[in-house]
């Protein structure tokens, strides 16, 4: 009789310990920290224009993983804490992955490089016709310009820099002796601005004076990397004369000639004899100029020279006594396209 009583008590203790251990599965306290971290990442991405939902969703997944254990028996407390910390880490990692994933799928694949962005990456006068941006060797001008596009895109939308950005620039030599046509290096579309507005569905769409089927809000005033119409990038001041954008191209997006690319975007000395003068397109239509179709975004006129410099005041066409990329109304900006929509 006594032996049966002892056995019963022992079984009861075992059952009680089992219940206590199972209880640790229901405490989500440390998992909540994981949710907070990933939620912050989602909020940050949302404020930058990415899909916050993707980040938050990923964060919640991490929080669920981090849910098990902080309460329960004292013997399980350490295990619960470890599980909670793992959940916190998983939540943060999932939030970061969600943010990057959102940027990778967000509709952002076209912009005009803003004057402010170029100044931050270069000098007060911009890059001029030398767009190497640290690249060296054959084809450095195009590679550097592509890198500038990716850098600016990443600053505007973290994660978007990995979309495969290409500057809309033609060149006489790609580094292997082959001509480069801007229209051939930007992918197949579609392309959207920073706010998800359509710029063009296909190469055929954009191979026109102004891009066919573009959203009406941006068709005649291309937006910068933040989705702001570039004619008036600062809403607190009046619109500026900044329409000239480097392309080195014809109205069909092909190389204009070998003197129109600032030595394939590697030189900014202002030497007209050795560098030539860059061909530019207009980010917003304007009349006058007398060197082609002033409404063309790909090829409107030839600028004064390759030296850095900006002229944002309306003074007519390119100035005869200047040798800068912006004398006719610009600052040496250019168009950027991503291979991933």
Key structural traits:
single chain, 341 residues, alpha+beta, Mannose-Binding Protein A, Chain A, 2 domains, 6-stranded mixed sheet, two-stranded antiparallel sheet, 8 strands, 36% helix, globular, disordered N terminus
Walk me through this protein's architecture.
The protein has 341 residues and is an alpha+beta fold. The protein folds into 2 domains: 2-105, no CATH class; 107-341, Mannose-Binding Protein A, Chain A (Roll). Helices cover 36% and strands 9% of the residues. The protein has 9 helices and 8 strands. The chain has helices at residues 2-23, 29-47, 52-66, 74-105, 115-121, 140-156, 203-206, 262-265, 272-275, and strands spanning 110-112, 165-167, 191-192, 198-200, 244-246, 279-282, 301-302, 330-338. Strands 1, 2, 5, 6, 7 and 8 form a 6-stranded mixed beta sheet that branches. Strands 3-4 form a two-stranded antiparallel sheet. Strand 3 (191-192) and strand 4 form a beta hairpin. Helix 2 runs antiparallel to helix 3, helix 2 runs parallel beside helix 4 (74-105) and helix 3 packs antiparallel against helix 4. The chain is globular. The protein starts with a helix and ends with a strand. 51% of the residues are buried. Mean pLDDT is 78; it is low at 1-99.
- According to CATH, what is the class of the largest domain? Alpha Beta
- Percent of residues in helices comes to 25-40%
**Uncertain ranges:** 1-99
Average pLDDT for all residues? 78
* Count of individual beta strands: 8
The helix-and-strand class reads: alpha+beta
> For this structure, what is the CATH homologous superfamily of the largest domain?
Mannose-Binding Protein A, subunit A
Percentage of residues in strands: 5-15%
- Note the run of SSEs as H and E: HHHHEHHEEEHEHHEEE
- Return the CATH architecture of the largest domain: Roll
Cα end-to-end separation: 80 Å
Radius of gyration: 29 Å
């Amino acid at each position: 009789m006594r032996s049966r009583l002892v056995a019963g008590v022992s079984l009861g203790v075992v059952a009680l310990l089992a219940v206590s251990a199972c209880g640790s599965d229901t405490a989500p306290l440390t998992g909540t920290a994981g949710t907070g971290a990933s939620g912050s990442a989602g909020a940050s991405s949302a404020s930058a224009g990415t899909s916050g939902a993707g980040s938050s969703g990923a964060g919640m997944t991490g929080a669920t993983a981090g849910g098990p254990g902080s309460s329960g028996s004292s013997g399980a407390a350490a295990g619960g804490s470890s599980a909670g910390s793992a959940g916190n880490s998983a939540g943060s990692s999932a939030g970061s992955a969600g943010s990057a994933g959102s940027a990778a799928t967000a509709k952002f694949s076209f912009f005009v490089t803003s004057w402010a962005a170029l100044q931050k990456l270069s000098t007060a006068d911009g890059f001029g016709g030398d767009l190497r941006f640290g690249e060296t060797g054959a084809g450095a001008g195009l590679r550097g310009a592509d890198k500038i596009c990716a850098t600016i895109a990443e600053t505007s939308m973290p994660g978007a820099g990995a979309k495969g950005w290409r500057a809309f620039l033609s060149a006489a030599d790609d580094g292997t002796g082959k001509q480069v046509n801007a229209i051939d290096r930007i992918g197949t579309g579609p392309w959207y601005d920073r706010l998800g507005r359509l710029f063009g569905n296909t190469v055929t769409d954009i191979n026109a004076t102004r891009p066919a089927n573009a959203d009406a809000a941006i068709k005649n005033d291309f937006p910068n990397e933040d989705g702001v119409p570039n004619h008036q990038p600062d809403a607190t001041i009046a619109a500026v004369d900044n329409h000239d954008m480097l392309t080195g191209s014809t109205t069909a997006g092909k190389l204009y000639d070998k003197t129109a690319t600032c030595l394939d975007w590697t030189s900014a000395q202002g030497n007209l004899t050795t560098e030539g003068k860059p061909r530019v397109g207009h980010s917003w239509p304007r009349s006058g100029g007398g060197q082609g179709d002033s409404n063309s975004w790909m090829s409107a006129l030839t600028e004064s020279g390759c030296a850095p410099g900006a002229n944002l005041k309306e003074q007519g066409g390119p100035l005869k006594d200047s040798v800068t990329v912006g004398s006719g109304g610009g600052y040496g900006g250019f168009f950027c396209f991503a291979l991933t929509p």
